[in-house]
C-alpha cells in the first residue's frame, strides 16, 4: 500500500461521505459546509492526477466564491431546518432505488475500463502547472477564453438586472 | 502515480454523480438543488481530468474543458441565485413547488 493509494482511498471516502451528508442534512447551512468538504476532497484528487493548477482554481472558485455566495443567500433568507420543505417518504425511497439501479449499471459498464489502457503512461509532473497551461491557453484556446470573458460580462449584467428590486 | 486503476476513480465520480442526482430529485429547496447540480458538474470534471491523464497524457484538452466548465458554473450560479432571490421576494418561499406561476 503506497502513500498515493492511501491518499486516494482517504480522499474518495471523504468525497462520498461528504456528498451523502450534503444530500441528507436538513439544515441548508450544513449542506453548504459539507459541499465545501467535498470540493476540497476533489481538489486533492486533482493533485493526485497531476492537475495542480486546476486544484487551486477549484478551491478558489468553488470553495471561495460560489459557496460563499450560497452561504450568504441562505443566511439572507434565514433558512434553517424548520423552514426546509420536505418531500414525502415514498418519493425518497423511489429516488434511492432508481439512483442505485442506474449506478449499478454504470459501475458494471465501467468495470472493464482498465483494459482501455494500452500501456501505463506517465506524464511529467509539470504538465498541470500554470506555465504549460498558460502557453496553451493563449495559443490554442484563446478564442474560448475571450468568449468566456464575454459570457461573464453578460452573466454579470443579467444577475444585476434580474436581481434588481422593482420593475 | 499510475498505480491507481482508472476504474476506481471512475467509480468515485459515478458515485458522486448519482448522489447529486438523488439530491436534485428529492430536495425541494431551490438552493440545495443548485448545490446538487454543482456536485454533478464536479463529478463530470473528475472524469475529464482522469481521461486526459490516462488516455492522452501528452494533451491538455481535458484540463481546459474542466477550467471552462468551472468558469461557466460560476456564471450560472450567479444568474441562478439572482433568479432565486427574485422568486423569494415575490413568493416568500424557495420551495420549487410554490413557483407555479410566472412573474405574478
Q: Please trace the helix and strand order of chain A, writing H or E for each element.
A: HHHHHH
The rounded distance between the terminal residues' Cα atoms of chain A is: 62 Å
The total number of structural domains of chain A is 2
Quaternary organisation: heterodimer
Summarize the structure.
The complex is a heterodimer of chains A (167) and B (104). Chain A is 72% helix and 0% strand.
Structure description:
The complex is a heterodimer of chains A (167) and B (104). By secondary structure, chain A is mainly α. Chain A has two domains: 3-126, Four Helix Bundle (Hemerythrin (Met), subunit A), CATH 1.20.120.1200; 129-167. Chain A has helices at residues 3-24, 28-48, 52-76, 89-110, 130-137, 142-163. In chain A, helix 1 runs antiparallel to helix 2. Chain B is an all-alpha fold and 104 residues long. Chain B has a domain at 29-91. Helix content of chain B is 75%, strand content 0%. In chain B, helix 1 (6-26) packs antiparallel against helix 2. Chain B starts with 5 loop residues before the first helix and ends in a 13-residue tail after the last helix. In chain B, 44% of the residues are buried. The model of chain B has no long low-confidence stretch (mean pLDDT 86). The chains are: A mainly alpha (167), B mainly alpha (104). Chains A and B meet through helix 1, helix 2, helix 3, helix 4 and helix 5 of A and helix 1, helix 2 and helix 3 of B.
Amino acid at each position: 500500500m503506497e502513500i498515493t493509494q492511501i491518499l486516494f482511498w482517504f480522499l474518495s471516502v471523504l468525497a462520498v461521505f461528504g456528498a451523502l451528508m450534503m444530500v441528507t442534512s436538513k439544515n441548508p447551512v450544513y449542506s453548504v459546509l459539507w459541499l465545501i468538504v467535498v470540493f476540497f476532497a476533489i481538489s486533492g484528487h486533482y493533485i493526485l492526477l497531476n492537475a495542480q493548477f486546476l486544484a487551486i482554481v477549484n478551491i478558489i472558485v468553488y470553495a471561495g466564491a460560489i459557496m460563499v455566495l450560497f452561504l450568504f443567500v441562505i443566511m439572507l433568507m434565514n433558512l434553517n431546518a424548520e423552514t426546509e420543505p420536505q418531500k414525502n417518504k415514498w418519493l425518497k425511497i423511489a429516488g434511492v432505488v432508481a439512483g442505485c439501479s442506474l449506478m449499478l449499471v454504470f459501475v458494471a459498464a465501467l468495470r472493464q475500463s482498465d483494459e482501455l489502457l494500452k500501456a501505463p503512461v506517465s506524464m511529467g509532473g509539470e504538465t498541470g502547472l500554470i506555465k504549460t497551461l498558460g502557453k496553451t491557453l493563449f495559443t490554442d484556446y484563446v478564442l474560448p477564453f475571450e468568449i468566456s470573458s464575454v459570457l461573464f460580462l453578460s452573466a454579470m449584467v443579467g444577475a444585476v438586472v434580474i436581481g434588481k428590486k422593482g420593475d | 502515480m499510475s498505480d491507481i486503476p482508472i476504474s476506481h476513480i471512475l467509480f468515485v465520480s459515478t458515485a458522486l454523480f448519482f448522489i447529486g442526482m438523488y439530491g436534485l430529485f428529492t430536495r425541494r429547496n431551490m438552493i440545495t438543488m443548485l448545490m446538487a447540480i454543482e456536485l454533478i458538474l464536479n463529478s463530470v470534471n473528475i472524469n475529464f481530468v482522469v481521461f486526459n491523464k490516462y488516455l492522452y497524457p501528452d494533451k491538455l484538452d481535458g484540463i481546459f474543458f474542466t477550467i471552462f466548465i468551472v468558469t461557466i458554473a460560476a456564471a450560472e450560479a450567479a444568474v441562478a441565485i439572482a433568479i432565486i432571490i427574485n422568486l423569494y421576494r415575490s413568493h416568500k418561499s424557495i420551495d420549487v413547488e410554490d413557483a407555479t406561476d410566472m412573474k405574478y
